[in-house]
Structure formats: C-alpha cells, structure tokens
Write a structure and sequence with these properties.
Elements: H1 4-12, H2 27-30, H3 32-38, E1 43-49, H4 55-62, E2 70-73, H5 83-95, E3 98-104
Parallel strand pairs: 1-2, 1-3
C-alpha cells in the first residue's frame, strides 16, 4: 500500500497555520511540538468522514500523532458527514485545545 499521499497530506497541514511570528521561527524551523506550544495547542487531531480510507490511521501513527488522533464522523445515506456531529467534534477539539490538522469529506 502506498501511504505517501496520506503522510504528505498530514505532514504539510501544520505549515499553513504555524508560520513564522514574533518570537517564533515557524514550524519548518522549530518543529510541530514547539509550534503547537507557541500557538497554545495541547493536541492535534485529524477529522474526517467515517468513510475516510483506513490508511489515515497508519499515516497519523507514522507522524507521531497516534491512531486515536483520527476522528471519524458518521455519514448520512448520501455519504456526507453529518453536520451536527462535525460541528460538535470541532467545538470539542477547540475546547480541548486540540489543533484540527485536516478535515476530509463533505458536509450534509
């Protein structure tokens, strides 16, 4: 199985939200752990559809996030993520000081 697209997708996610700022050289220079501390996050999660490919678990594991960081949202009969579930998960992540790295899927 080729995991490179999934690993690439997850590994580039922090770069768009953790760029250089005053007193911080950026995630590329200082790394994900320091970036999360600088921006006030305690954790990171990957939010996606229940239909998301199982290899995202492996990609999250390879990047050190752990498979528990992959959150799958139930879908409706048209394969779209249920909006109420998605919004609750995002609110939970923000309240838990978790950085939602990537959200995959369509909302119903």
């Amino acid at each position: 199985m080729l995991l490179t697209p999934r690993v690439d997708a997850l590994s580039y996610c922090p770069y768009d939200r953790a760029g250089p700022a005053e007193g911080f050289a950026g995630v590329e220079t200082e790394g994900v752990v320091r970036a999360m501390r600088y921006y006030g996050y305690d954790d990171a999660v990957v939010i996606g559809s229940a239909l998301m490919h199982y290899s995202f678990n492996k990609a999250a594991d390879m990047l050190g996030l752990g498979v528990d960081a992959v959150i799958r949202i139930p879908t409706d009969n048209t394969s779209r993520m249920r909006y109420c579930c998605a919004s609750n998960i995002v609110r939970w992540a923000v309240g838990w000081h978790a950085n939602p790295l990537l959200a995959l899927g369509r909302l119903a």
